[in-house]
Design a protein that fits this description.
By secondary structure, the chain is mainly beta. It is built from one helix and 32 strands. It comes from Camellia sinensis var. sinensis.
């Protein structure tokens, strides 16, 4: 046999041994993973009627001649037969993860166990899944703390733990998840402050922390999340100031901080958020004036500042917000006149100004708001005549009660054929009650007292 033939034989032998060894390893891994899944299944309640009936080992554990766990419901494998995805969302699972041996799945990269009836704690051993990219345990009954070991999942892109019964604080180790783009922890009982380490998640695009018991100040380090598009932190117990560093988040389209205990003034820097569409700061203890920089929020469609302690006048710059659909400034201490520039908000459908200290005449320019559906201006100090306010005919709710308005109710009000609720009481209107009142086929309530 020549030298070339010997070399070819040696290469063939090496390839054979390599492939044989690989087959043995794959079979061994598949058996281990299959057994781990069967063991976990045995701990679940009411599995006889579940979707896991396909989770059965072949005779004599002969995985090598079968598809093994790769053919089971909710289980997917990579090219060498090792489990890499477990998708059991909405599968009527009832039990815990206590007997799920995470270490048996070296290639598991995707777990979705959402919308089941899983309970107990999230096991710290979940941190052993070094290749995990996606984890969703939402809409279950998990309780206890978020384990700090979750910070070991450094490849994680998505973490959803929403609508459980988790408590305790957000572990600072979450700040190690540098690949994370989506973090959703809403509707739990999480408490304590937001760890400053959250500011390390510079790839984060979506952050949902609302509907918890989180407290303390909002860390200025959150201004480092420059790729953030949505930030929902409402319905918690946050205190202190809104950090001016949030003005760095120029990709934000939604910023919700409502239903907290935030105080101090609104930073002018918020006006830098040119991509912002939804801004909700209502129901806090904010004071000072509405920043004139809000006139630079060129994309905003919803602006909610009601139920605070804001004072000063309504900035005329708000008339620049050409896409604004919903403006709610009620229940503050705003004073002075309504700026005529609000008449330029051609997309406006909802305007709430009630329960302030606004005064002067109601500008006739508001009659240009032809898409207006709801106009509430009650409990202020408006004076003068009521202008023609129903040019578009779409108005359904109109309240100007508890003011100092005089004169007659304009004939043009009959154009409001959609009007369902109107209050004119506690003013000084004069004249006859017009027969034009019959022009409102949808009227449910009107107060002229």
């Amino acid at each position: 046999m020549g030298l070339l033939e010997k070399q070819l034989c040696l290469v063939s032998l090496v390839l054979f041994v390599t492939l044989f060894s690989s087959t043995i390893n794959v079979t061994s891994t598949s058996v281990k993973e299959a057994n781990a899944l069967i063991t976990w299944k045995a701990t679940l309640q009411s599995t006889n009627h579940s979707l896991l009936t396909s989770w059965v080992l072949p005779p004599h554990d002969n995985i090598s001649t079968s598809a093994g766990p790769c053919s089971w419901f909710g289980v997917s494998c990579n090219f060498d037969g090792s489990v890499n995805r477990l998708n059991l969302t909405n599968s009527s699972l009832n039990g815990t993860l206590d007997n799920f041996t995470f270490s048996s799945f070296p290639n598991l990269a995707y777990i979705d166990l959402s919308m089941n009836n899983l309970f107990g704690v999230i096991p710290p051993l979940i941190g052993s899944l070094s290749k995990l990219i996606y984890l969703d345990l939402s809409i279950n009954q998990f309780s206890g703390n978020i384990p700090p070991e979750i910070g070991l999942l450094t490849n994680l892109d998505t973490l959803h733990l929403v609508e459980n019964q988790l408590n305790g604080s957000i572990p600072q180790e979450i700040g190690q998840l540098k690949s994370l783009t989506e973090l959703a922890l809403y509707t739990n009982s999480l408490s304590g402050p937001i760890p400053a380490s959250l500011g390390n998640l510079r790839n984060l695009v979506h952050l949902y922390l609302y509907d918890n018991d989180l407290s303390g100040p909002i860390p200025p380090a959150m201004g480092n999340l420059v790729n953030l598009v949505e930030l929902y932190m409402d319905s918690n117990n946050f205190t202190g100031l809104i950090p001016s560093t949030l003005g760095n988040l120029t990709k934000l389209t939604a910023l919700h901080l409502f239903n907290n205990y935030l105080s101090g003034s609104i930073p002018q820097e918020i006006g830098k958020l040119k991509s912002l569409q939804d801004l909700s700061f209502e129901t806090n203890n904010l004071n000072g004036s509405i920043p004139t920089s809000f006139g630079d929020l060129s994309s905003v469609t919803l602006l909610h500042l009601w139920n605070n302690q804001l004072s000063g006048s309504i900035p005329k710059e708000l008339g620049n917000l050409k896409f604004l659909n919903d403006l709610e400034l009620s229940e503050n201490q705003l004073n002075g006149p309504i700026p005529a520039s609000l008449g330029k908000l051609s997309m406006l459908e909802t305007l709430f100004l009630r329960s302030n200290q606004l005064s002067g005449p109601i500008p006739h320019e508001l009659g240009n708001l032809k898409n207006l559906l709801i106009l509430e201006m009650d409990n202020n100090q408006f004076s003068g005549n009521l202008p023609e306010l129903c040019q578009g005919g779409k108005l359904t709710n109109f309240t100007v009660n508890h003011n100092h308005l005089i004169g007659t109710i304009p004939q043009s009000l009959k154009n409001c054929s959609s009007l369902a609720r109107a209050r004119f009481d506690e003013n000084q209107f004069i004249g006859n009650i017009s027969e034009d009142l019959g022009a409102y086929p949808n009227l449910v309530y009107m107060d002229l007292s």
